[in-house]
Prior knowledge:
By secondary structure, this protein is α/β, with parallel strands linked by helices. Helices cover 21% and strands 31% of the residues. The chain has helices at 61-71, 100-113, 145-156; strands at 11-16, 22-28, 31-34, 52-54, 57-59, 75-80, 85-87, 122-126, 129-137, 164-171.
Amino acid sequence: MKFPKQLKPTAAESVELPSGKVVEIAKATPIFKPWTGKRFSRKQTYGGKAVLDFHGQPHFAELGILRIFERDGWQGVWVDTYSGKHRTRYWPKDEVELPKEKQSLLDSIYEAAGSPYGCFDVFCWKGRSYIFAESKKRGEDKIRDTQKRWFEAAIKCGVPMDSLLFVEWGIEA
């Protein structure tokens, strides 16, 4: 899989799935700039999510990752499972519909996993290729059991391992 330069994997993360099988998922480790513009309240940031600077615009990491893919010619969405929406921006909030075949893939994975919870944060596609990218803040976020169930369901539904990416990001000091 050809990833955008800023999200090129430099490592792999071993994950033990609920079945006991251990898989290696590619991992990128970018450093992002903190947002230094207008301040947002906790309510405006899902209770305190980091706001980052992507080309002079404030974004959560998930939307910043999406912007990186978009600049490389991909289309995609933030799979906001917390609110049950697919988004391409947050300020102002939006909700977008997925193309039918993309929604069908997600629905089959959700059914196999027994829930939409655990889905990777960013779903992108370009031609026949697609990528699911999971955003994890370095030193703070851990892989949850719901995500392990989702990984396993995605693999059972035919998602290739090279279409899965961990983005373990840090903030520039």
